Amino acid sequence: MHKITLIPGDGIGPAIVDASVQVIEATGVKVDWDTQLAGMAAVEEHATPLPEETLESIRRTRVCLKGPLTTPVGGGYRSVNVTLRQTFNLYANVRPAMSFEGTSSPFRNVDLVTIRENTEGLYAGIEHFIKFGEEKIAAESIAVITRQGSERVVRFAFDYARAANRKKVTLVHKANILKCTGGLFLEIGRDIAKEYPEIDFDERIVDACCMQLVMKPEIFDVIVTTNLFGDILSDLAAGLIGGLGLTAGANIGTDAAIFEAVHGSAPDIADLGIANPTAMILAASMMLEHLGEKEAAGRIERAVRAVIREGQILTPDLRKDSGFGTQQMTQAIIANL
Ligand code: NAI
Ligand code: MG
Questions:
Q1: Exposed site from 71, 87, 104, 181, fewest CB < 10 Å?
Q2: What pLDDT, in 10s, does the model give residues 104-144?
Q3: Is the pLDDT of residue 191 over 90?
Q4: Closest protein CA for atom 8 of ligand 1
Q5: Residue 299 in contact with residue 27, Cβ under 8 Å?
Q6: Which atom of ligand 1 lies at the shortest distance from residue 261's CA?
Q7: Average pLDDT, the chain
Q8: Is 18 within 8 Å of 29 (Cβ atoms)?
């Protein structure tokens, strides 16, 4: 019996998290869920986006399946996702993007994993306005790159490549302009690469990397990069394989691991029952793998791929006017397990 914290989340979160729970239960893996609130749902009930009970639960279970959480833009509370990543030292955000047969994406040979540094860089939360009287005349954000933070995420990327039998790690940076922050990350990457002679090491500047990802995605294998670039590149990679509805991510750290979809709470479709459950279900598969349930994890991934390949019971983001929604696609996946 695995004890897992479950955060349904905001917007489409509860529907796709429920879909994932149904799929896990259908594999026969036994889970004792501890359901907790975060995000807008928690603000309504507890007047805080991240209640102490939720943190306490993750401290206890050390594993969490989390729906997307709405974050106010500009003002309002700080991103709960960023706070969770920093609180539990979830330093590596692992986001695989592998082409699906059956989508309309023109890219057929994508098979890459973005490993995003998840706790520092421009997301360190050191931001302020400079005011002249009441007027904001400037705003500053400070990017923090530490030796320890860079070493652990680059090493994670190489260890991941080794374990997954992948051949190449590409470090993505902007060290030509960001000479200190980008420079230190790159220097550390080059040093650690020497400890893994059997894995090719490649380095690319982020803007050129974006172009190459679109022109020749097949040349990428494992990408390791700083926080902001990783956020952007992993959405780009999601676009290459058919959209945000398909891409899952694992936040892995020293104190816990949190599994989620790469996409957000999709307020534009929140109450329509048409959210694609794939990303969240694949996050559940990554979680089972992490828990040592490799067989069930593999079955889930194969079932999802079979349903998309068959091309029938798909949500409208994959098949326009399909007439099917989250529930039907989930049932089709369960039928394929
Ligand atoms: P979003 O990812 O929620 O939506 C972007 C577009 O993709 C929308 O058109 C949406 O309908 C579509 N989409 C996303 N997931 C889908 C799915 N499963 N099935 C079908 N279509 C899907 O990004 P947006 O709109 O920028 O952010 C909405 C909220 O989510 C914001 O408050 C943001 O801060 C939050 N967010 C939370 C994340 C998390 O909890 N890890 C990650 C990204 C955003
Ligand atoms: Mg993002």
A1: 104
A2: 888 989 999 999 999 999 988 899 999 999 999 999 999 99
A3: yes
A4: 266
A5: yes
A6: 41
A7: 95
A8: no
Q: Which of the four pLDDT bands, split at 50, 70 and 90, describes residue 261? A: very high
Nearest to 207 by CA among 236, 239, 186, 244: 236
Q: What is the pLDDT of residue 148?
A: 97
81 close to ligand 1 (CB < 6 Angstrom): yes
- Tokens 């794939």 — which residue? 278
Give yes or no: 202 in active site: no
Gap between the Cα atoms of 80 and 93, Å rounded: 15
pLDDT in tens, 143-170: 999 999 999 999 999 999 999 999 999 9
**Percent of the chain's residues with pLDDT above 90:** 88
> Tell me: domain 1-93+244-337, CATH 3.40.50.150, correct?
no
Name the catalytic one among 207, 216, 255, 294.
207
Please tell me if the domain spanning 1-93+244-337 has the same topology as the one spanning 106-241: yes
CA 331/CA 325 separation, integer angstroms: 10
Cα distances (Å, whole numbers) of residue 149 to 155, 298, 310: 10, 31, 43
Residue 314 in contact with ligand 1 by CB distance below 6 A: no
69 lines ligand 1 (CB under 6 A): yes
Ligand nearest to the CA of 82: 1
For the whole prediction, is pTM greater than 0.85? yes
* Ligand 1 centroid – CA 84 distance (Å): 18
Domain assignments of the chain as residue spans, ordered by start: 1-93+244-337, 106-241
| Cβ of 260 less than 6 Å from ligand 1 | yes
DSSP 8-state symbol, 121: E
Any idea which architecture 106-241 has in CATH? 3-Layer(aba) Sandwich (3.40)
Respond yes or no: is residue 231 known to be catalytic: yes
Of all protein residues, the one whose alpha carbon is nearest to atom 32 of ligand 1 is 70
